[in-house]
Amino acid sequence: MPGSFGQIMWCIGTALELGFVVCSLARRSFLRYFFLNLYLLLVVASSFGRRYIMNSCGWDSDAYRYAYFYTDALLTVALYVALISLYSQVFGELRFGKYVRLGAVLLLLGTAVFTYGVVAQSQQRLSTDFAYELSQNLYFVGLVLTYILWGAVLKLREMRTRVVQFVLALGIYFSAYAASYALVNVIERYSIGLFTWPVLGCLLPLLWTVTMWRHSEESRLVPARLVAVQR
């Protein structure tokens, strides 16, 4: 997005994304949360790539349009993989990690095939709309999976604080993006998203960075207390 607003949000988002990676390295947790770090590094790389294309070809060019929506789809898949890595950690304690990974891969492939089938009905829409529809569908799938994961977390008597907070952050992030996509579809396709998506893009790295900085790997909590009703 051009203009001062886009420039400011891009700088803030990039700083937060790199901040999480730096915190992970400083706290010696980079490999434990490798897929979370990988996702944010891919976000930074795609962000610089988009800006290069925007400066070279223009913000309203087809090249930038293709770059934006296809990198967005790839980043959504990468975030989905990061979510599954948290699934493995949570369900690993319940001894269901292998089945979770298999089910997640099948669900990801099923979502991609379904999206392709819907968009392919009109070949003129296949270029960028497939990437847009895939991202939208994966955000809704991710939202459902995050709430399922949160339900599993609540079943555990005790869990690492970082994992619980990471899952909560994903729930907030997916919920906000799903609502944003719904709003864009109801009002006007892309104009609302041009303002909401850059802001939402800063939300997840901010929450993850705060969690990584504040809590050690040994810190644990009882998830059920987070939803306990005070009487």
- What is the strand tally? 2
How does the helix and strand content classify structurally? mainly alpha
Poorly predicted regions: 121-126
> Briefly, what CATH class?
Mainly Alpha
- CATH fold-level assignment: Rhopdopsin 7-helix transmembrane proteins
Q: Any idea what the CATH architecture is?
A: Up-down Bundle
Q: Count structural domains.
A: 1
* Number of helices in the DSSP assignment: 7
- Report the principal-axis shape: globular
Taking all Cα atoms into account, the compactness measure Rg is 18 Å
Termini, distance in Å?
48 Å
Helix percent reads: over 70%
Strand content is: under 5%
Order of helices and strands: HHHHHEHHE
Physical arrangement of strands within the biggest beta sheet: 1-2
Rounded average pLDDT: 77
Biggest β-sheet description: 2 strands, antiparallel
Can you give a write-up of this model?
- The structure is a single chain.
- Strands 1-2 form a two-stranded antiparallel ribbon.
- It starts with a helix and ends in a 10-residue tail after the last strand.
- Helices cover 79% and strands 2% of the residues.
- The relative contact order is 0.12.
- It has a single domain, classed as Rhopdopsin 7-helix transmembrane proteins (Up-down Bundle), CATH 1.20.1070.
- The chain has helices at 3-26, 34-57, 62-93, 97-119, 126-155, 161-186, 191-214, and strands at 159-160, 220-221.
- With 231 residues, the protein is mainly alpha-helical.
- It contains seven helices and two strands.
